[in-house]
Design brief:
Elements (H helix, E strand, L loop, with lengths): L7 H20 L27 H30 L2
Length: about 90
C-alpha cells in the first residue's frame, strides 16, 4: 500500500498519537509526567529507510496512484454500461 498511498498511514498515526496524548494527559494524576505524541508513535521497523524520495520515485508513486484511479473509473464505467443494457 505504501507504493500507492505513501502519506496516508503516517498522517493517521500522527493524528492518533495526538488524540492518545490528550486522553493520557487528561486522565493522568496531578504532578505526573506529561505525555508527548512521540510517546504513542510506533517505532520504525529495523532497517526501514524513510529518507527523502528522488524526483523519479515521486513520479512513479503518483503514476501508480493515477493508474489505480483510472482502473476504478474504467470499472465503474463498464458497470454503468452493463446496467443500462438491462
Amino acid at each position: 500500500m505504501w507504493e500507492v498511498e505513501p502519506w496516508g498511514q503516517e498522517a493517521s498515526t500522527v493524528q492518533l498519537a495526538v488524540i492518545a496524548t490528550i486522553l493520557a494527559n487528561t486522565n493522568a494524576k496531578k504532578g505526573s509526567k506529561k505525555f508527548k505524541p512521540k510517546d504513542f508513535m510506533p517505532k520504525a521497523p529495523e532497517g526501514a529507510d524513510y529518507g527523502r524520495l528522488s524526483p523519479d520515485q515521486i513520479k512513479k508513486r503518483f503514476e501508480a496512484i493515477a493508474e489505480k484511479f483510472e482502473e476504478k473509473e474504467r470499472t465503474a464505467a463498464a458497470r454503468a454500461r452493463g446496467s443500462r443494457k438491462r
